[in-house]
From TrEMBL, chain A:
Belongs to the bacterial solute-binding protein 1 family. This is Carbohydrate ABC transporter substrate-binding protein (CUT1 family). It comes from Actinorugispora endophytica. The keyword Metal-binding does not apply. Gene3D superfamilies: Periplasmic binding protein-like II. Keywords: Transport. InterPro entries: Bact_solute-bd_prot1 (IPR050490), SBP (IPR006059).
UniProtKB/TrEMBL annotation, chain B:
Pfam families: BPD_transp_1. The keyword Transmembrane helix applies. This is Carbohydrate ABC transporter membrane protein 2 (CUT1 family). InterPro entries: MetI-like (IPR000515), MetI-like_sf (IPR035906). Residues 1-10 have a biased composition (Pro residues). PROSITE patterns: ABC_TM1.
Length: 447, 327
């Protein structure tokens, strides 16, 4: 007797066929929705139309921040038909190297460290900015910024977002209740610290725990102090290792930071003694400000995202920030910060179009409208910045009086900037002598 | 366990005739069993188990606590001040992430893990059989090579393998193999191949030990009955090594499910192909400002390995023992 075909097998076979034929378009990853290119909303993007394609963007920005960024270029993508495939990873620094070495480089990468971009420039992987991008960049940013992405007179990247790493967070309510004022000079700040300490409150809190990167918040402290104590020229020499890491000028700056960070009368508000700095995460370190257990906390502008929901950030709110005051006000306003640079590994027309768009003031405003972001772009509309600290940061960054320097540890060789400098600072917080720490870091500098 | 050296058991001759050895072995096994089932040993076992589970329990409790509580106090304060919320799970599973809802990454994880496990188990079983029971020249050398491959850390092969996928193979300017250039969801193929390659050496080695221990008489009897290699493999070998196959499958499943590195490089971070682990790594935000989500995220991702482990547990223990205890 011939065996009849199993009905279930037939169904399964035909189902899989249906899926196979129907799923192919999906599997190829095609089918991006686009707006009518002739509609009035798309007029602003007409210059980039006609370059349809896919551009992959890779960066360390992820989760909510990444969503905001993707929304900010959505209209550009819809109108031009350029499909921007964004990928964010916490392992960006290591992975981008693997991707490039493996021949799978992203079209565009957003580098948070100019030093990393420089490595790809040296290796010949990064593509220089075309003239159109260069023109836009020169209109948008000061020389201080562009220098960080320029090698041998050739511009390789344009700045994107900015961080302000000289912010001192404080509670305006606490300050006004106790008659304290925002200090304008370093000496005023020390006097203020003494006054707060006299009230029985620790004037400073700090925390440098950050997983594998433990120690980096302390490097920001040192960099800020060097920039203020010794000025931008010494800072540049120090970062570029033209003067040794253990130069006497650097020792002086360490001693100045020492007066605050390792002073039992000043730290560690809300957490305990000096040693707790090493074990408190930078995310948690500033929280005692809300409970009036700590007066001030030096941390970047991105700390705004850490405050719990319901905290008012503002000049009259629960928390606000001021720029760490200069030692000598005559020297201008030194600011230490960071930011991303848009580097590219391809020069297809659609990649160039995206690079151009990211360098415009329109993009900056579109991104700023999504919130929690600012840049040093001259064309950025300050009224579009929702958060008061973002507005303050952008205002100071664009001020011609401002002397901007990039976070030094992001410019140093990774062995130091993301290694011994962090470890050295951690040991220093735990009581290591300043000389020993400086010698340790100096010895580790790759020759 | 103890640091004090145990003196040799008195009265036992070093090289005794077979029978004596057997008897003493029995009695020592019985003695061990007896000692391990005392109350004190049970208490110690319970204490170890508790200490071992405590951090996970803390994580579980934390995952139900509100964000501020997690960030400011330890999980043990839950007992004095219980506050329960499902917000973390809500964020993780159905959060604002426009396309980043965990469900799609969950599917991706399965799409990556199941084929990678099946490929490894099938290929390793076939290879193990061939290396153990098919006579061909150089067999031992092949096995030695496979064995040696286990030493190569997978990190070393990431870049070559990636360039194999994205640039093809070129020797002296001649393109021997084109680039794969798989877009969209087809990029899963890269991950399957990568995981299979990385999983095979251990798999072959593990199964080879099992398969080669099967009694020769079985194979001879089957051959007399007219069985070829195909029948031998299907009807004799596979049924006998099921525990080993299952334990290899569990190993491989857990390894692939928990893998972040291979997925990051070969699957990328897009919602189309990235598995759960990649999403979990991003969950905390660029600067870790939302790390309270990790508590819930960890438990969501733990569920599947737990299910797999508990449902196949009896095979797992049997498979492990079958490899270590012979005779």
């Amino acid at each position: 007797m011939p065996k009849s075909p199993h009905p279930r097998a037939t169904v399964a076979a035909s189902l899989s066929l249906v899926f196979l034929t129907g799923g192919c378009a999906y599997l190829e990853g095609g089918g991006s929705q686009s707006a009518d290119p002739d509609s009035p909303e798309c007029e602003a993007f007409s210059q980039w139309q006609g370059n349809e394609g896919t551009v992959s963007v890779y960066a360390s920005i992820r989760d909510e921040e990444a969503e905001r960024m993707e929304r900010s270029w959505q209209q550009f993508a819809d109108c031009t038909g350029i499909d921007i495939q964004y990928e964010g990873s916490g392992e960006f620094e290591a992975q981008v190297q693997v991707k490039v070495d493996g021949g799978n480089a992203p079209d565009i990468a957003l580098f948070p460290q100019p030093g990393l971009l420089a490595r790809f420039i040296d290796a010949g992987d990064a593509v220089p900015a075309p003239d159109s991008v260069r023109t836009l960049a020169e209109e948008g940013w000061s020389e201080d910024w562009l220098n960080y992405a320029t090698v041998d007179g050739e511009l390789y990247g344009t700045p994107l977002g900015a961080n302000f790493k000289s912010f001192v967070w404080y509670s305006p309510t606490y300050f006004s209740e106790n008659g304290h004022e925002v200090p304008q000079t370093w000496d005023e700040m020390i006097a203020l610290s003494d006054a707060i300490a006299a009230d029985g409150v620790k004037p400073w809190c700090a925390g440098i725990e950050s997983g594998d990167a433990t120690g980096w918040p302390a490097t920001d402290w040192i960099e800020n102090v060097i920039l203020r104590e010794q000025g931008p020229d010494v800072y540049d020499q120090w970062v570029g290792h033209e003067i040794p890491f253990n130069d006497p000028q650097i020792t002086e700056a360490f001693d100045r930071a020492d007066e605050i960070l390792r002073n039992e009368d000043y730290v560690n508000g809300g957490h305990g003694n000096v040693q707790t700095i090493g074990t408190t995460s930078f995310q948690d370190a500033g929280m005692p400000i809300l409970d009036d257990e700590c007066g001030m906390y030096l941390m970047g502008s991105f700390y705004a995202a850490q405050w719990p929901e319901g905290t008012t950030v503002g000049e009259d709110g629960d928390v606000f920030a001021f720029n760490l005051p200069p030692v000598d006000p005559e020297e201008g306003t030194p600011v230490m910060g960071g930011g991303e640079f848009v580097g590219a590994f391809a020069d297809r027309p659609e990649v160039v179009a995206v690079r151009e768009y990211l360098a415009t003031a329109e993009y900056a405003n579109s991104r700023a409208a999504e919130g929690a972001w600012f840049s040093a772009h001259q064309g950025l509309d300050l009224d579009g910045l929702e958060a008061p600290t973002d507005r303050l940061g952008a205002e100071i960054l664009r001020d011609p009086e401002t002397v901007f320097r990039f976070d030094g540890s992001d410019l140093m060789p990774a062995a130091v900037g993301a290694g011994t400098f962090w470890r050295g600072m951690t040991n220093w917080i735990n009581g290591e002598e300043t000389d020993v720490t400086l010698d340790y870091i100096e010895d580790s500098w790759p020759s | 366990m103890t640091s004090t050296p145990t003196p040799p058991v008195g009265g036992l001759p070093a090289k005794a005739p077979g029978k004596t050895v057997d008897r003493s072995r029995e009695s020592s096994a019985a003695r061990v069993r007896k000692r391990l089932s005392t109350t004190a040993a049970s208490v110690v076992a319970v204490v170890i188990a508790t200490v071992w589970t405590l951090p996970t329990a803390g994580l579980l409790i934390s995952s139900f606590r509100p964000e501020e509580e997690i960030k400011n106090t330890g999980w043990w304060t839950f007992f004095t001040d219980p506050q329960i919320t499902l917000r973390n799970y809500g964020d993780v599973l159905f959060g604002t992430a426009s396309q980043g809802q965990l469900a799609s990454y969950f599917v991706n994880s399965f799409v990556i893990t199941v084929p990678s496990t099946v490929f490894v188990v099938v290929l390793a079983a076939l290879a193990a059989y061939a290396l153990a029971w098919v006579d061909f020249p150089g067999r031992d050398w092949v096995f030695l090579g496979v064995f040696a491959l286990q030493i190569v850390p997978l990190q070393m092969s990431l870049v070559p393998l990636l360039s194999f996928f994205s640039e093809g193979v070129t020797v002296a300017g001649v393109q021997l193999m084109p680039a794969w250039d798989l877009q969209g969801a087809l990029a899963f193929t890269n991950v399957w191949v990568a995981h299979t390659i990385f999983g095979l050496p251990l798999g072959i080695f593990l199964l080879h030990n099992f398969v080669s221990q099967l009694p020769r008489s079985l194979f001879e009897a089957a051959r007399v009955d007219g069985a070829g290699h195909g029948v031998l493999f299907r009807r004799v070998v596979v049924p006998l090594v099921v525990p080993a196959l299952v334990s290899l499958a569990i190993f491989q499943f857990l390894w692939v499910w928990n893998d972040l590195l291979v997925a990051l490089i070969f699957a990328g971070g897009g919602v189309e192909t990235a598995p759960l682990t990649v999403r979990l790594a991003e969950l905390a935000g660029t600067r870790g400002e939302e790390w309270q989500r990790l508590t819930a995220g960890a438990f969501v991702s733990i569920i599947v390995p737990l299910l797999v482990f508990f449902s196949l547990q009896r095979y797992f223990v049997r498979g492990l023992l079958a490899g270590s205890v012979k005779g």
